[in-house]
Structure to design on (693 residues):
């Protein structure tokens, strides 16, 4: 039977509109997607359920294989094994877990334990670089942290065994119970070895359910030390709170105490800690970090400590070393894996004894003997320059930038204050620039560079003294300010090699120049140096002892060649005399061999008119006013008195006053002996050649 043809118009009316078709298609797609998602969720749930029921024990071999391949270490579990979600966090439990060490390490295993049971937060593990362990149970564990001898590799950097060692980053642990667990740390470069044992002690009737205590021993640079401390972990009622932490380290007579709170058991970032240190020598404490500092007398300091990134920040630092105070802030960091110390420090008052170590003197010896503590005997000869060696090898281990200000130096006869020092150490290049201070109304600036990148150590000295009142500068040595308007300015520009102050100066080359511009000085000091008996007695008898004497200009200069400083020149022009000097002194054996002579510009009846000798050594100088020339003239006078008359004997001591005034231009410019002139422009022949004999 034939069907009735469908009318196109009826078909069009019967078909659903396109919009409805689109909606139906979307619903079908959504339904399919929901079914797929539901299927995936079901699969995940079933996988979770299987893992939860079985505890993931069947993954033991897979875990060992994947972990061993990823770490490139042997990872084994000798006993029971759990790995599953509970319900969202990862539950990991292993009995007899061992992780081997690299072949170069001194122990076979990096980690081993009787039991490790942990709950690891899943979301932080996926989205954050640092894992968070909500709970950790560890029994009879042993962790070995080592650096190799070159300091290039360590045991906690997994993967390629030749890869550069990374800094140690522990996971954040919120709660832990640890029993019979040990940690060993070894760093051959720092000569540090320590063994620490951890145990959990349960407390009663306190808000803390568990108290992790630790104690240990070790050696640093062959010096033994002990460690004790504790970490209080919050119980369930205060979960997520901060952990109380305390630790004490004792090495000989040095003690370090750290106390405060940590955000988590192994979280130092954002910690709020107080550090107290005390001991016999601050250098011993810094040696723990591989940082070299001068020796000190006994010290005590307190500081606030926080950690931000790779920086350990010591703020509100306050305390004392010896009889000197110190305050400020210090940061220790590891930019580019290299230790860096940055400090901004200040002292209100520093005892001169505590300054001694900065130039190589023993502070305890100075405290016991005073100035005599600076003197040592070398082959029967007294030596003043310090010979404590610069620890050049240790300077290679760190960099530093230190700003240090001292308001006042407590020292007799040393009017120094307002010291400003900037110290920079960059890969064994040490700069003290600027090193500035106020000196008796004047100012001293210096720039000192010590280059220990090369052998032997090379030092560049540039020391500049601005015009400083003589009366104030030498007041403690008997010079009166009254009647003295003269000033002094100076510059020392030298270089030397050697790792001690003595060795550096004993090989030095350069120039020392002390300039005395026009001014007045207390008369007696000038006359005594002249040995002009007639003038001195006349002024004394005339009660004019303190009448100022006019100084026109003066220069005391030395050219230094291989540690020998030769007068170049010594030339002082006063209104009545011209003082000249010859000779040298040696930085090598610290000997003195100088002759000073004063020639009068005016007639004087009684005058020694003979050189005054300066001999001996830096530590024990000697002045010899009775020179061979003076004794010779005295014998001539006695002879004349015998063969003629007493008046003839006086003639041997007459000074006719023929000294030639000096031109002050070359003197004030610090020129060498060859450039000195008389006021008439004639070359001076009485100032030597500037060469040591």
């Amino acid at each position: 039977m034939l069907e009735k043809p469908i009318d196109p118009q009826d078909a069009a009316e019967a078909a659903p509109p396109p919009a409805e078709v689109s909606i139906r298609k979307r619903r079908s797609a959504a339904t399919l997607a929901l079914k797929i998602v539901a299927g995936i969720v079901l699969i995940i749930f079933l996988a979770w359920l299987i893992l939860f029921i079985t505890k993931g024990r069947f993954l033991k071999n897979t875990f060992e294989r994947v972990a061993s391949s990823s770490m490139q270490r042997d990872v084994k579990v000798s006993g029971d094994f759990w790995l599953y979600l509970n319900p969202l966090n990862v539950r990991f439990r292993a009995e007899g877990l061992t992780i081997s060490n690299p072949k170069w390490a001194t122990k076979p295993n990096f980690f081993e334990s009787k039991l490790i049971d942990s709950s690891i937060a899943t979301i932080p593990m996926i989205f954050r670089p640092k894992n968070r362990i909500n709970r950790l149970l560890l029994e009879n564990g042993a962790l070995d942290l080592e650096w190799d001898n070159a300091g290039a590799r360590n045991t906690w950097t997994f993967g390629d065994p030749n890869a550069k060692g990374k800094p140690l980053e522990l996971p954040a642990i919120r709660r832990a119970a640890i029993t019979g667990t040990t940690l060993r740390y070894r760093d051959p470069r720092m000569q540090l070895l320590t063994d620490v044992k951890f145990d959990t002690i349960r407390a009663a009737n306190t808000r803390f359910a568990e108290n992790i205590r630790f104690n240990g021993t070790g050696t640093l640079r062959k010096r033994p030390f002990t460690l004790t401390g504790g970490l209080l972990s919050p119980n369930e009622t205060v979960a997520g709170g901060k952990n109380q932490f305390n630790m004490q380290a004792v090495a000989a007579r040095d003690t370090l105490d750290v106390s405060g709170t940590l955000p988590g058991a192994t979280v130092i970032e954002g910690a709020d800690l107080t550090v107290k240190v005390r001991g016999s020598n601050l250098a011993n404490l810094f040696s723990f970090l591989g940082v070299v500092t001068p020796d000190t007398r006994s010290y005590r300091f307190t500081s606030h400590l926080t950690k931000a990134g790779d920086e350990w920040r010591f703020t509100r630092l306050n305390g004392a070393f010896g009889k000197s105070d110190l305050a400020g802030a210090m940061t220790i960091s590891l930019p580019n894996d290299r230790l860096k110390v940055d400090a901004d420090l200040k002292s209100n008052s520093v005892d001169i004894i505590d300054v001694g170590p900065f130039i190589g003197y023993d502070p305890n010896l100075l405290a016991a003997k005073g100035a005599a503590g600076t003197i040592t005997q070398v082959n029967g000869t007294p030596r003043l320059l310090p010979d404590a060696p610069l620890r050049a090898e240790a300077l290679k281990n760190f960099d530093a930038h230190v700003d240090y200000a001292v308001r006042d130096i407590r020292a007799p006869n040393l009017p120094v204050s307002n010291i400003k020092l900037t110290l920079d150490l960059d890969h064994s290049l040490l700069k003290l620039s600027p090193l500035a201070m106020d000196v008796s109304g004047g100012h001293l600036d210096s720039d000192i560079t010590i280059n220990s990148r090369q052998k032997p150590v090379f030092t560049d000295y540039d020391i500049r003294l601005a015009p400083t009142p003589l009366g104030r500068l030498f007041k403690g040595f008997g010079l009166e300010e009254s009647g003295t308007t003269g000033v002094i300015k100076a510059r020392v520009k030298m270089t030397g090699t050697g790792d001690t102050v003595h060795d550096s100066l004993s090989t030095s080359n350069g120039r020392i120049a002390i300039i005395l511009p026009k001014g007045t000085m207390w008369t007696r000091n000038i006359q005594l140096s002249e040995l002009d008996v007639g003038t001195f007695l006349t002024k004394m008898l005339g009660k004019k002892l303190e009448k100022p004497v006019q100084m026109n200009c003066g220069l005391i200069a030395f050219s230094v060649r291989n540690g020998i400083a030769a007068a170049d020149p010594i030339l002082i022009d006063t209104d009545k005399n011209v003082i000249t000097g010859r000779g040298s002194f040696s930085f090598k054996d610290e000997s003195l061999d100088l002759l000073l002579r004063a020639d009068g510009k005016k007639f004087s009846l009684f005058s020694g008119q003979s050189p005054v000798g300066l001999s001996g050594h830096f530590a024990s100088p000697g002045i010899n006013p009775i020179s061979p020339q003076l004794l010779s003239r005295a014998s001539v006078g006695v002879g004349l008195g015998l063969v003629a008359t007493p008046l003839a004997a006086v003639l041997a001591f007459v000074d006719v006053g023929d000294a030639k005034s000096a031109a002050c231009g070359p003197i004030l410019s610090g020129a060498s002996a060859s450039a000195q002139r008389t006021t008439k422009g004639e070359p001076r022949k009485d100032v030597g050649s500037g060469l040591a004999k």
